[in-house]
Amino acid sequence: MLTVAIDSSQDMCTLALGRKTQLLSEYHFHHKMSLLRRLVPNIEMMLSDAGHKPQDLDAVFVSLGPGSFTGLRIGITTAKTLAWTLGKPIIGVPTLDAIAMGAADTAVEIICPMIFARANEVYWTLMDSTAEVRLAEYEVSPVSDVLLGVEKRGLKACFCGTGATRNAEKIRHKFGNEAVVTKPWTDFARGAALLDLGNKRLSEGHIDDAITLTPMYIRKPTPVVKLEAGELDIK
Fold first, then answer.
1. Where are the alpha helices (DSSP H) in 87-134?
2. With the C-alpha atoms ordered 197, 185, 24, 68, is the resulting torsion angle positive or negative?
3. pLDDT digits (tens, 9 = 90+) for 4-52
4. Rounded distance, CA 203 to CA 20, Å?
5. Are 116 and 163 in contact (CB under 8 A)?
6. 131 in helix, strand or coil?
7. How far is CA 170 from the centre of its chain?
């Protein structure tokens, strides 16, 4: 089974091609606000480099967020179009789960993946040390609230993702040696993690609808908030 995975939730876009859980290709590129122009050509190049064409794909996995409003819409729309056109299943994967999987098996008791949301705020959740079991809901919170919540659990924690990298000093100041902050190359979802999570959901029958699948925003995007408040005229 040949599958492709797409994560466009952050500034670094991840593409992966796999055969079952075997990683065949993994592309990362900093899209610099040009994701719409570069995403499809990069998918085509990855497939071509591996000796495949889109028609060879058996399923499409896509990262659902949370993360960039525009990046998620571009990535998910591209994945839905690919799946719909080819008549193949599409499976959404929570971005925080994939980031946590990249930090699994470290010598800690819980993993706290954090994605930078805006100044002093992060999207986050908590996973067990294997990144297989989620221990908290997906939320967006001030960094101080997240650190306080982790401290109350009294467990050695691993912090990963862009939210952890940007707030590494605060984390080390609060926890000292009782916490691990992963290296910056774990800031984004890795291709193997996206493929692993996608294959697991596919094997469990969790197939999404290519028409109705939507991003996981956690918080309403600013344009939606303004529209609901009557501050945005779309006529």
1. 95-101
2. positive
3. 999 999 999 999 999 987 999 999 999 878 999 999 999 999 999 999 9
4. 10
5. yes
6. coil
7. 23
